[in-house]
Every structure is written in structure tokens, then in C-alpha cells.
Amino acid sequence: MMRILTIIAMLMMAACSHSTAPDAGALSAAEARALAAEAYVVAYAPIQNYAKQSARAFDKSNVNYQGTNKLYNFPLLIDYYSAQIAGVPSPNHDTLYSSGVIDLRNEPVVVSAGAVSDPNRYYSLQLLDLDTDVLPYISTLTNANRGGHYLVLGPDNAVPTDTSGFTGVIHSPSRIVTILGRVEAFNDADQVNAALVQQGFKIQTLSSYQGTAAPPSNAPDLPAYDAASAQGLGYLQYANLVFGLQPPEASDPALAARLARIHVGSNQTFSATEFPQDVQDAISRGLNDGAAAVRAASLTHSVMRNGWSSVDPSVMSDNGSFGNDYLARAAVAYALIYMNTRAEAWYGLAYVDGAGAALDGAHDYTLHFAANEVPPSKFFWSVTAYDATTHLFFNSPTQRYSIGSNTSGLQYNADGSLDIPIQASAPTGSAAALANWLPVDTKPFYLIIRSYGPGPGILNGTWVPPPVLRTP
To answer: φ, ψ for residue 171 (rounded to 5)?
Structure first.
């Protein structure tokens, strides 16, 4: 793994050592390989973002297509069947989801959230630019459930003379923005109330919000993502597409000048036939180098403690930016795209027990939280079990898929600690064990701890999740 990262670093340094002007002499195979590797890494996160949003936002032939500047509200994924239909990997059993794409190419957009009457109900609208940097949240944490109307401006949008009528103004460096909504549902029966909060979310163009005529549009339809076309050298055509929507020149002009050497950039058209065969072959090898580097980095940009893996908090700034650390950005997109800021949410994943053995429902386990050591959170926490093959809930007759602060009837021990039995068969011996039981099936599984509004212990790293212990 370290060898791969060392190779990619050397290739990138080789690219940087050459002149950055597009016409700076003949392009050698070695330089082309280094630049292609760099292009792969830099474009990885925005391409993955574009690909994930394509079906609903850009692909008119897809049954799920809805276009841009609209929010799709998912129902609460309360069981195996609804999760299977939704097709969302590792679905959250605690919240209702919304998702959409904001298109800022023609005019600004207004995102609205209604006031939430219950001060204890968490919600968030997470906006991300195409590169997957997090823009300012609209959430319980940022506006105390008051809601409001937020003006979102892209790089081509002029700031209106008077913005006093808006709750806030959000500036995006990209021409399209991903928006993800989450609304806490206290339990399955509460999903109706959570859905009412979802109904208060709205996306409108500025002209629609103001009731004025829309400006003339010359923005072409964005193409649907095609995975087959993105393979091999076709990857660089998608790189040019996403760079056109969020030009790297704005944040890293030296990078943009380097990549132009292989005809990659916001105003570039890549055609392999424009290069001699040895350079084409070198570009192909460079793309493979970049892919290997991203896979390797996805493992090195995480923190493992007591068998629980979480994204290294140092990769993202407190305000949600990866800066120009393109490999870290790509690594997170590979493992956990749409990462929240530390203040909003924290996730920990366990595929192994405290001894390092893979979790398997053929065995029984216990997750023991010492007194006052449940996941610190301002809003809520949960532990959810998933089938390691399908990445969905288990098809459980009990229809319990998670345990957490919203679970009714949790029973703590006399000393204030909490034991969560994790096993396929119902525990016997005590009412507390049955009340706290997190069912799995007799097959490999994994767990995710979620904390929304993480407490100080998570934010400063002093809280460590306990190991999952196999029951003797």
C-alpha cells in the first residue's frame, strides 16, 4: 500500500517538475503518465458525486428521473424490504432522507426549510459542491429549528443588490450543488411527523421565488453518467465535464495549467488520437496508477480504535473543506462520500470484534458501554447492524434494526452501564438482555455507530467506542 502511495507521489512530483504551460514543448510518455495519475485523483470525487446524482437529476431515460432544482423525499426505511427497494447502502434507520441537485448555471436558487415545532427533533440540509466540499448547513445546529429561506449563488451568479429578505446567503464554487436532507424519526410510528418536516423543504429558482420572469437560458442539458463510457481513457472526458462545472482554475491555477498538457480541464476536449501511441499508453497506465492510489488511500485516511474505523478527522477542515488535498478528498469519496462535518455527525464502522476477527452472526457478541460512555451526542445516537453481503438490514422477523437513544425500553445496568447483545437468536437469562437485543442473522455482518451533534468526547478524540466482544 505504501509503495503505491509513494509511486503516485513521485509521479505527481514528476508532473509538477515540468513546465506548466500547455505549449511547453513535446509531451513525454513519463510526463503524460504522471499527469494522468494526477488527473484521475483530482477528478475522482466530483465524478463520483456526478455519477451518484445522475439517475434522478440528469438521466431522462431513468425511471427515477426528476430533474434538477427538486427534492426527492425517501420514505423511512423501516425494514429490509423498503431498504431493498430504495437501494441505499447502509441505510440509516433513524432519519428520513431527501436528495436533489441544484443547478445554478442559469440563475440563483432559494432553498427553504420550514420551522420545526419540536425543539428536540434534529434535521439538516447538507449542501455540497461538486468537489464534495461541504457548504454551510441549514440545520438544527445552525438555526435552532427556526428554518428560513437561503439564497444559493454559483460562480456565475451576480449577488442581488438586496439580500436582506433572506435568512442567509450560501456561495458555491460549483455550478451544480448536491443537497441531502435528513429528518430524525423518533421511532417507526413517528415517521408521519418527520415526513411533515420534509414537506417544509423546498427548492426554487430565484425568479420563481420572487414571482418574476425567468432569465433566458442557454445552459445545455447535462448528460447522464454512463459507467461503461467512463472506463479507460473515457474517464478523462468525464473529468472535463466535471471540471467545466467546477473549474480547477479558480482554486488551483497551477494544477489547471499542468493538466491542460494532456487536454484535461474546464475548457478542454480530450481525444486520445491527438497523442502518439506511446503517450496514449502512458496515459492509460497513469489512470491505473491513480485508481490504485485512491484505493490505497481509502485505507490510510481512517482511524482504527477498538475495531471501529472512522474517517481521520484531519482530512477535512471544521468548515467542511478538503482544500487542495486531492488524494484525501478522493479517499473519502471512495469510502464514505458526502462526509458530514465533525460538528454535525460522526460515524464509526466495525467489521471486526475486539480480537480482530470478522463479525459473524454464527457467534454471539456484546457491546458494553460503561456508565456515561454511550456515544456522546447533542441530538441522538444509534448502533445499526447490516448484512455484510447486501449492505442492507437483515430480513428480521423482529423488525428491530438498530439500538440507540431513541429506542423505547432500553434497560441500563445498576451501575449505569449499558449492554447490547448482538446475536441471531433471542437472548435468554434476563429481561434487560431481551430489551436491549440487536438481532442479526447467522451470517457475516457489520455495525455502524452514528452520533448526530457529536459531543466533546468525539470532537476532541477522547471518547473511544468500546470493542465488540464475542460471548464465550
So the answer is: -100, 130
pLDDT tens, position by position, 217-272: 989 999 999 999 999 999 999 999 999 999 999 999 999 999 999 999 999 999 99
CB–CB of 327/297 below 8 Å? Answer: yes
How do residues 349-366 score in pLDDT, each as one tens digit? 999 999 999 999 999 999
* Domain locations in the chain as residue ranges: 2-52+221-300, 72-210, 344-470
Given a contact cutoff of 8 angstroms between Cβ atoms, the answer to whether 445 and 361 are in contact is: yes
Q: What is the dihedral of CA 97, 59, 156, 73, to 10 degrees?
A: -20
Instruction: Quote the CA–CA distance of 297 and 352 in Å, as a whole number.
Output: 20
Amino acid at 357: A
What angle in degrees, to the nearest 10, is found between the helix axes of 235-245 and 29-57? Answer: 70
Instruction: Report the DSSP pairing between strands 109-113 and 123-129.
Output: unpaired
For 30-129, list the strands marked E by DSSP.
72-73, 95-103, 109-113, 123-129
The third-level CATH classification (topology) of the domain covering 72-210 is: Immunoglobulin-like (2.60.40)
Of 332, 299, 303, the closest CA to residue 1 belongs to 299
72-210 and 344-470 have identical folds: no
Q: Per CATH, the architecture of 344-470 is what?
A: Sandwich (2.60)
Can you tell me whether residue 80 is helix, strand or coil? helix
**pLDDT, tens digit, 9 for 90 and up, residues 119-138:** 999 999 999 999 999 999 99
